[in-house]
Amino acid sequence: MPNTQRVAPPGATIPVDQYDAIVIGAGISGLYLIYRLRKLGLSIRVFEAGSGVGGTWYWNRYPGARFDSESYSYGYSFSDELLQEWEWSEHFAAQPETLRYLEHVADKFDLRRDIQFNTKVIAANYDEVKKCWEVEMEEGMGARAQFLITAIGILSAPYIPDFDGIDSFAGDAWHTAAWPHEPVDFSTKRVGVIGTGATAVQLITEVAKNVGHLTVFQRTPNYCKPLRNGPIDAHRQAEIKASYPDIFKRCRETFGAFIHGFDERSALDVPAEERNAMFEALWSQPGFGFWLGNFSDILANEEANALVTEFVRTKIREQVTDPIVAEMLVPKNHGFGTRRVPLESGYYEAYNRDNVLLVDVRAAPIERITPTGIKTCAAEYNLDVIIYATGFDAVTGAFTQIDIRGEGGPALKDKWTDGPRTYLGMQSAGFPNLFTVVGPHNGATFCNLPRCIEQNVEWVSDCIGYMRDKNIERIAATPEAENAWTAHVNELVEETLFAKTDSWFMGTNIPGKKRSFLMYTGGSPSYRQKCDDVAANGYEGFVLD
Ligand code: NA7
């Protein structure tokens, strides 16, 4: 039976265009998919909710937004010409520059002609008879394709807590991922920020520099490490351009596809003096080295983790003048690195300013939003602006917002109620020809994203090329392969401290979301190898017909 739950309301006629492949999202993944699928001669349509390319870098325009990957490890690697012509101005580029880069890529490779902007996909049904996906858009259009590829990112479903009175607030209020496109002036405003995750850490640092008054509502402090950003001078620029092959080789070898790789020794096997010297050396380096270039067991062994955690706690206390505020900023309920580590550029110092106030909303939770501000159980705060830096329904949220129905009509969101079930994080059984680039359980989730996005996109496009060559119409993950991969993902995480900590990695930031690991902790090289082996063995674990 063909599945007819959605696509057009009964009686309605909607224009339905036919393509070989439909891609959802025009971020880093979507752009590269166009480039690769075009080379196979496929007709492609990308549907993008925003009015421009860039995905994360299109939406997250809040002050201070920048990536935590070294710029030169972040760009696409597929075009030497692109690598040689683009010059990153800083070691860790800010959002406007990254967006300009992605716009440049779209223009250079003429990618926009396959993208339909301002178009939000709300449903997708697999038609078993026609062996194709039918996609429905909020704007009332439909489209059909043999392949459906989600390129919707892991942090694209913004989350705002369901506070009482939220609509009553009379001032401006924004989530960080739905930021205005025009500059916002806070210099005379009383601003409240809810949240102290990686986003808030960047935002608070920047807003604090020029604000009337800033109140930060913190539920859980995080361990923030100095970013140590700086401009790239002409000499370094030339060095970078000459060493791209080495940079990308290095990224292929490390756990998270960053230039930083773990030290294989245990923190417990090293004399205290040497260990502290290494902590200090890593602390003084830019980027994620302190997290992902540290002793290999700091994220698995509680004793090893306690050593690095104490080191960071001391560093936090040293930066904050008021000892009471310092203590509020020191995490107590988890160890260093077991949640996403924010990188900061003056975050702790922001709390040394007279016009910045830190409020503990774990001790006294937010009771409601009022027309004039925020009321906690303990006090009321008058505000002109509220900024929700409250994160995302990570990894699965962007999927469950779309009514995706596979063979026989089951909804993906129902299938994933108890946590995602996937094969390689690339497909879910019962949803043939649906590829989930950077989907749940995919190696790209815990990764310097563009590096793993390239791997994902190349694997998917090679797979489609293989199917075309062999006249195969349909590829579907087997339930057995899915069970094995899902079990593997869950076994791997149990060996780490991530499993013991509340975070968006575990889905615990969203009320009612099942506690389940959403990512993959086997490391990028193992993931790449597994994907390559699956392909080399004729896509084992999939049925092709
Ligand atoms: P995060 O890391 O999920 O941070 C969200 C923040 O919002 C976090 O501090 C939360 O506290 C806080 N939050 C959420 N709900 C509430 C309520 N109800 N009351 C008070 N505080 C709340 O999101 P980010 O955007 O910072 O970062 C996401 C990723 O984007 C980041 O890792 C980068 O990779 C880019 P909690 O910790 O849950 O107690």
Which features would summarize this protein structure in a list?
20 strands, globular, 5-stranded parallel β-sheet, alpha/beta, 545 residues, 8-stranded mixed β-sheet, disordered N terminus
What is this entry, summarized?
With 545 residues, the chain is of the alpha/beta class. The chain has helices at 28-39, 56-59, 71-74, 80-85, 95-108, 198-208, 234-242, 244-253, 272-283, 289-292, 302-319, 323-329, 347-350, 397-400, 412-415, 449-469, 479-494, 524-536, and strands at residues 16-24, 44-47, 115-116, 121-127, 132-137, 142-150, 172-175, 190-194, 213-218, 225-226, 343-344, 356-360, 366-370, 373-376, 380-382, 385-388, 403-405, 434-436, 475-477, 542-544. Strands 1, 2, 3, 4, 5, 6, 17 and 18 form an 8-stranded mixed β-sheet that branches. The chain has a 5-stranded parallel β-sheet with strand order 7-16-8-9-12, with helices on one face.
What does this structure look like?
The protein is of the alpha/beta class and 545 residues long. It has 18 helices and 20 strands. The protein has helices spanning 28-39, 56-59, 71-74, 80-85, 95-108, 198-208, 234-242, 244-253, 272-283, 289-292, 302-319, 323-329, 347-350, 397-400, 412-415, 449-469, 479-494, 524-536; strands at residues 16-24, 44-47, 115-116, 121-127, 132-137, 142-150, 172-175, 190-194, 213-218, 225-226, 343-344, 356-360, 366-370, 373-376, 380-382, 385-388, 403-405, 434-436, 475-477, 542-544. Strands 1, 2, 3, 4, 5, 6, 17 and 18 form an eight-stranded mixed beta sheet that branches. Strands 7-16-8-9-12 form a five-stranded parallel beta sheet, covered by helices on one side. Bound molecules: ligand NA7. Ligand NA7 is lined by residues 155, 161, 194-200, 217, 219-220, 340, 361, 366, 389-392, 504, 509.
